[in-house]
């Protein structure tokens, strides 16, 4: 699957949903709690072990900063991009300015 | 990502949290999303065309904004304070369109082909009666979300294009979803057609902070509303803060609930912020610098910097109250000379900015350079510690005998004079020096001002090149409706009223 900003992603068999904020070109393999993550939430959930909780409002990305997903509906993790875990970006607590 | 998705997220997580209005009777996030979905149904008749909003800050503002975002129409807030001629010209440019505005703004429009007009109250009752649209917002980040007219202090207003990606980047990079406490409330007194009115609405909603709207700013009402609504956060422009400080001084209110006061939208005179810091020691002050074209703030001076600058006797640190602090983590700011070369720390030039929230784009064309930099047309410098100093619009910098003088530095000294209520400094052409420094001053009630006394006052505080060659005494300064001094008008010698 190719990611592009604005693409909405659902996971088969879990409640988790994401919106792509940043994407790199090329095909990627995204899974959430062991199930594929795609535009229509199709596919079956393999009996993989779910670990951790993906939280609504958190942004998940790779270390290189090339891919970023915003969680719009929470669910079980882990969130994997090509087998590597996407981690929650620490919120930069900025004082409000407007 | 669409800005309406920001509302979708927070309204799905905490639908019952109050979004707009009174803590008890206000509109919840869930109700706001519902109203926006109904507004979408009303907006289906002119797909892709801008929705003009000429109303004041009421609930109709966010409902129309999010309705337009889901309907795929750019939201174009326009000033209800414009004279009939410019107002009509601006509407004409956007035809075919729908205009939501009060009757007093629309009565002189006459019949225009392709224009549908409705007033905000009618719009709201039509929304309530409408069927809910089930459509999902278009997630294309490139779609234009908001069209804003720049303030045009230096020339004709331009239409800045803010795409969904600019606004969502701004919100997501600095705001934690529903991170605000349940007791937090923001008092918004900037109008919907100001970038801070739009950005402030989005960040407060996404952060879960209740918004209290004050449609027509008046200092006493602001203070009363802040007390009654237990306001914890507020944003004001410098002229508003000066008037608020006067009211607080007079009536002795301390605003015990207020925790956070941000200001921006123009240069803050140092005496005003120093007085505000002294009157409200429990409040966190934030100075924010940004432009319409940069989706609001790009640099901020935070609460700690305010406190340490006020407490210290070190003049270098004290002066930071005149800076706009440091760039946001997601933004880069540099200073370039007129040939486009980046200059060293401490050297003045033009401020350039780059980052995901920077639009730098007008209805006609993008103004970003090949590397994504946007020239602000603001003069400034960045010191060795990374603090950004904005010296005003490039056009306002006075070049006297080859030396660049910042009007703000001289204005700060002028308004410290006990007999001077307000002051603006500008340059006028001169054969010998290129430009001469001229000060326009407004005396305090019952005071008279002599040119020589003003010159002596400045000469005892600043280098001699800063001393005004001429002092004009006026009854008031020409300002736009958000308090920005119109130096262009002063230079042209028009509009200003000479004191008798």
Structure overview:
The complex is a heterodimer of chains A (98) and B (500). Chain A has 98 residues and is mostly beta strands. Chain A has one domain (8-86). Chain A is 0% helix and 38% strand. Chain A has strands at 8-11, 17-22, 30-32, 35-38, 53-54, 59-61, 68-73, 75-76, 79-81, 84-85, 87-88. In chain A, the strands form 2 sheets. Chain A has a 9-stranded antiparallel β-sheet with strand order 10-9-3-4-1-2-7-6-11, with no helix packed on it. In chain A, strands 5-8 form a two-stranded antiparallel sheet. In chain A, strand 3 (30-32) and strand 4 form a beta hairpin. The termini of chain A are far apart. The mean pLDDT of chain A is 89. Chain B is of the alpha/beta class and 500 residues long. Chain B has 3 domains: 3-306, Rossmann fold, CATH 3.40.50.12780; 307-395, Luciferase, Domain 3 (Luciferase, domain 3, Roll); 397-498, ANL, C-terminal domain (GMP Synthetase, Chain A, domain 3, 2-Layer Sandwich), CATH 3.30.300. Chain B has 16 helices and 25 strands. In chain B, the strands form 7 sheets. A 7-stranded mixed β-sheet of chain B has the order 10-9-11-12-13-14-15, sandwiched between helices. In chain B, strand 13 (284-291) and strand 14 form a beta hairpin. In chain B, helix 10 (238-251) crosses helix 11 (270-279). The longest helix of chain B is centred in the first third of the chain and has 14 residues, at 29-42. The chains are: A mainly beta (98), B alpha/beta (500). At the A-B interface, strand 2 and strand 7 of A face helix 1, helix 7, helix 8, strand 12 and strand 13 of B.
Question: Topology of this structure?
Answer:
The complex is a heterodimer of chains A (98) and B (500).
Chain A: E1 8-11, E2 17-22, E3 30-32, E4 35-38, E5 53-54, E6 59-61, E7 68-73, E8 75-76, E9 79-81, E10 84-85, E11 87-88
Antiparallel strand pairs in A: 1-2, 1-4, 2-7, 3-4, 3-9, 5-8, 6-7, 6-11, 9-10
Chain B: H1 3-13, E1 18-20, E2 27-28, H2 29-42, E3 51-53, H3 60-71, E4 75-77, H4 84-93, E5 97-100, H5 103-106, E6 115-118, H6 120-129, E7 144-149, E8 159-163, H7 164-174, E9 185-188, H8 195-207, E10 210-213, H9 219-228, E11 233-236, H10 238-251, E12 260-264, H11 270-279, E13 284-291, E14 296-301, H12 303-311, H13 315-318, E15 326-327, E16 332-336, E17 349-354, E18 374-382, E19 388-393, E20 398-400, E21 403-405, H14 407-415, E22 420-430, E23 434-443, H15 451-459, E24 470-476, H16 487-492, E25 497-498
Parallel strand pairs in B: 3-4, 3-5, 5-6, 9-10, 9-11, 11-12, 12-13, 23-24
Antiparallel strand pairs in B: 1-2, 7-8, 13-14, 14-15, 16-17, 17-18, 18-19, 20-21, 22-23, 24-25
Domain AMP-dependent synthetase/ligase (chain B): 14-362
GO molecular function (chain B): medium-chain fatty acid-CoA ligase activity
Pfam families (chain B): AMP-binding, AMP-binding_C
């Amino acid at each position: 699957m190719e990611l592009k900003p604005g693409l909405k992603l659902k996971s088969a068999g879990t409640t988790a949903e994401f919106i792509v904020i940043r994407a790199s070109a090329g095909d990627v393999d995204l899974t959430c709690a062991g199930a594929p993550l795609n535009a229509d939430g199709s596919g079956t959930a393999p009996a993989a072990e779910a670990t951790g909780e993906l939280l609504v409002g958190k942004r998940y990305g790779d270390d290189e900063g090339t891919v970023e997903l915003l969680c719009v509906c929470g669910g079980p993790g882990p969130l994997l991009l090509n087998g590597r875990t996407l981690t929650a970006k620490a919120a930069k607590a900025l004082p409000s300015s407007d | 990502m669409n800005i309406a998705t920001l509302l979708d997220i927070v309204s799905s997580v905490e639908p019952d949290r109050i979004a707009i209005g009174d803590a008890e009777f206000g509109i919840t996030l869930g109700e706001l999303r519902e109203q926006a979905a109904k507004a979408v149904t009303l907006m289906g008749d002119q797909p892709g065309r801008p929705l003009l909003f000429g109303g004041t800050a009421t609930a109709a503002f966010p409902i129309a904004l999010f309705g337009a975002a889901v309907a795929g129409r750019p939201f174009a807030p326009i000033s209800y304070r414009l004279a009939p001629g410019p107002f009509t010209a601006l509407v004409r440019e956007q035809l075919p369109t729908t205009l939501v505005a009060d009757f007093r703004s629309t009565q002189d429009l006459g019949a225009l082909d392709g224009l549908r007009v409705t007033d905000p109250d009618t719009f709201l009752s039509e929304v309530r009666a409408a069927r809910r649209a089930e459509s999902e917002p278009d997630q294309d980040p490139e779609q234009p979300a908001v069209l804003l007219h720049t303030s045009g202090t230096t020339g004709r207003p331009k239409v800045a294009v803010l795409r969904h990606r600019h606004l969502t980047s701004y919100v997501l990079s600095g705001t934690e979803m529903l991170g605000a406490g349940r007791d937090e409330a923001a008092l918004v007194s900037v109008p919907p057609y100001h970038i801070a009115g739009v950005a402030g609405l989005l960040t407060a909603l996404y952060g879960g902070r209740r918004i209290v709207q004050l449609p027509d700013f008046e200092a006493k009402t602001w203070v009363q509303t802040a007390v009654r609504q237990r306001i914890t956060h507020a944003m004001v422009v410098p002229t508003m803060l000066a008037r608020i400080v006067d009211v607080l001084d007079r009536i002795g209110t301390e605003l015990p609930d207020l925790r956070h006061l941000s200001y921006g939208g123009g240069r803050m005179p140092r005496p005003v912020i120093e007085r505000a810091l002294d009157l409200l020691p429990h409040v966190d002050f934030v100075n924010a610098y940004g432009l319409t074209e940069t989706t609001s703030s790009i640099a901020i001076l935070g609460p700690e910097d305010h406190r340490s600058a006020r407490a210290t006797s070190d003049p270098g640190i004290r002066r930071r109250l005149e800076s706009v602090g440091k760039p946001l983590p997601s933004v880069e700011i540099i200073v370039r000379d007129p040939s486009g070369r980046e200059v060293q720390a401490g050297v003045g030039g033009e401020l350039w900015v780059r980052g995901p929230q920077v639009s730098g784009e007008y209805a006609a064309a993008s103004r970003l350079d090949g590397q994504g930099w946007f020239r602000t047309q603001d003069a400034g410098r960045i010191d060795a510690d990374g603090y950004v100093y904005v010296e005003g619009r490039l056009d306002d910098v006075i070049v006297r005998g080859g030396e660049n003088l910042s009007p703000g530095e001289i204005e700060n000294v002028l308004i410290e004079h006990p007999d001077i209520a307000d002051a603006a400094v500008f340059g006028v052409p001169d054969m010998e020096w290129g430009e001469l420094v001229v000060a326009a001053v407004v005396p305090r009630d019952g005071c008279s001002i002599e040119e020589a006394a003003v010159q002596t006052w400045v000469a005892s505080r600043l280098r001699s090149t800063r001393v005004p060659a001429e002092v004009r005494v006026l009854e008031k300064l020409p300002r736009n409706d958000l308090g920005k001094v119109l130096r262009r008008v002063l230079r042209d010698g028009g509009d200003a009223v000479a004191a008798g």
